[in-house]
Amino acid sequence: MPITPAERKYLKNKHKGGKSNAKGNQYEEYYAIYQLALLFGKYRTTPSNVYLSTQLPETFVDDLLIVQEGSHKTYHQLKDLKNITWNSNKLKYDFERQRDISMENEERFALKLVYSDSTSSVDTVPESISDCTIAEHFPSHSSIQSLYFDFKPFREAIKSIAVAQHSTDNDLTGIYGALIGAWHTVNTQSHVSLEEILEKVNNIGKGLIMLDVYPMI
User: How many angstroms from the chain centroid is the CA of residue 215?
Assistant: First the structure.
């Protein structure tokens, strides 16, 4: 079913609210940095085959889109909220509509809810969308440094792309600092290639990222 005029108005307001939410924007930024580290590790030799977009207009699951090899799309919705449920703020509805639209467009896709509240019940995905949706816990932190020290998967993702096998925390701090710097230059763009982001990362933190990830220039 095509997007109705009422839904377009709803999506416009949803998009506007997402862009103006400072706390949510930081949470989204830290998650994007985490995903970049994972993607750099996975696509060391083919970064031009991966694209990222944020705050997608006229899209129901709209915070982050990652398009990987074979045009497989993963739509992300990030929620840094307490006591969130699938019935909060039309969350389930948004996922159902995105599923319907992606299926109508014959996409290869998956939907992902990323949430910060570890006590939330959203890890149990409603049956109506369970065939295409996963829920992932990602903690909320006041700084990227505290995320690095407190959340092991993030720390391991950063370590995995470091040049030195036994990099110091100072070296790894430089890596996630370079990731943030590069992300700030592209995060308002659409369909940005991982290759372009990685080149910016290397320009900022040259010598810190694993050499076979991207040719040094």
Answer: 25
